């Protein structure tokens, strides 16, 4: 954390979106202009767009609202850590799973090794999105984790709807989509079993302000994606949204422990991005083409093929529009 202190202070000075001269920035921090320039390069490597204009100084491409640990802590009842620069919020909680209580949260501004399903990379530029993980000890054990990840996705979309954000859908098993573009992803990981219980970490990455063609890093995203600001047409209070999502996750996980997937199929199917549309399921070398028919009571994805309606489960299945 200490090693990043100077860069984080520079960012909070620049966050207003105004020009700041290298000299003024350096003076405030007690460092030289050359040192400021070096730190700015480091900040750019975190995926932040900063311009330098001769005679004016440095400016962010757009103003940035930073996460505020005090605001976040005041807004939720669970233990919470904001670690601005991290490898992965999921990994951080997995590392300490034995000492955590259910509901413990870790948030970051930048992930150097954010990850998606099956070890793929989750692009995590500084300050423009949300990277949020929650620890949960699930007494029902690992077998129940699949259902849990579906339930979490539905709860998050319903929470967005409650904020007046319409049109966000789900792609099985747990991606959030808007107009056929990926808005957010959920990754549930397990750190081992304690007795019969499973130590789970539920991680969510939601794009808020990530703009196409700006941060260099977004070119590494291999499929259509979008950001919440494109859905709403305005910027979002990141701290308030994080608080809402943490409360939503906590409630969804508590409810799931009590009710499992009871009454869940209808909630899912209403939000299914592909319901009634042609899709393909990819399982390693195998592909199945058909029409998406939502999920069944166990959370398996249903696809109607010439052979009838088939069901598929498991972490190795990927769904694509066809
Ligand atoms: P699945 O295989 O689970 O159906 P998926 O193709 O969406 O889903 P994952 O295995 O979850 O993929 O891997 C992450 C995917 O998300 C990759 O395709 C990656 O390019 C993309 N991605 C990475 N970062 C972001 C981001 N910030 N926003 C949107 N998409 C991203
Ligand atoms: C997906 O592949 O769709 C899931 C993406 C999950 C990304 C989030 S960001 C917070 C948490 N930490 C990680 O390293 N991954 C998850």
Descriptive report:
By secondary structure, the chain is α+β, with helices and mostly antiparallel strands. The chain has nine helices and 16 strands. The strands form four sheets. Strands 3-5-7-11-10-9-8 form a seven-stranded mixed beta sheet, sandwiched between helices. Strands 15-14-13-12-16 form a five-stranded antiparallel beta sheet. Strands 1-2 form a two-stranded antiparallel sheet. Helix 2 packs across helix 3 and helix 6 packs across helix 8. The longest helix is centred in the C-terminal third of the chain and has 22 residues.
Please tag this protein with its features:
single chain; 322 residues; alpha+beta; five-stranded antiparallel β-sheet; 9 helices; 16 strands; binds adenosine-5'-triphosphate; binds biotin
Spell out the blueprint of helices and strands.
Elements (H helix, E strand, L loop, with lengths): L4 H10 L7 H8 L3 H13 L4 E4 L3 E4 L8 H7 L4 E3 L2 E2 L2 H7 L9 E4 L1 E2 L17 E10 L6 H18 L5 E4 L3 E4 L2 E14 L2 E11 L20 H5 L5 H22 L4 H8 L6 E6 L2 E10 L5 E5 L2 E5 L5 E4 L1
Parallel strand pairs: 3-5, 4-6
Antiparallel strand pairs: 1-2, 5-7, 7-11, 8-9, 9-10, 10-11, 12-13, 12-16, 13-14, 14-15
Helix pairs in contact: 1-3, 2-3, 6-8, 6-9
The protein binds adenosine-5'-triphosphate and biotin (BTN).
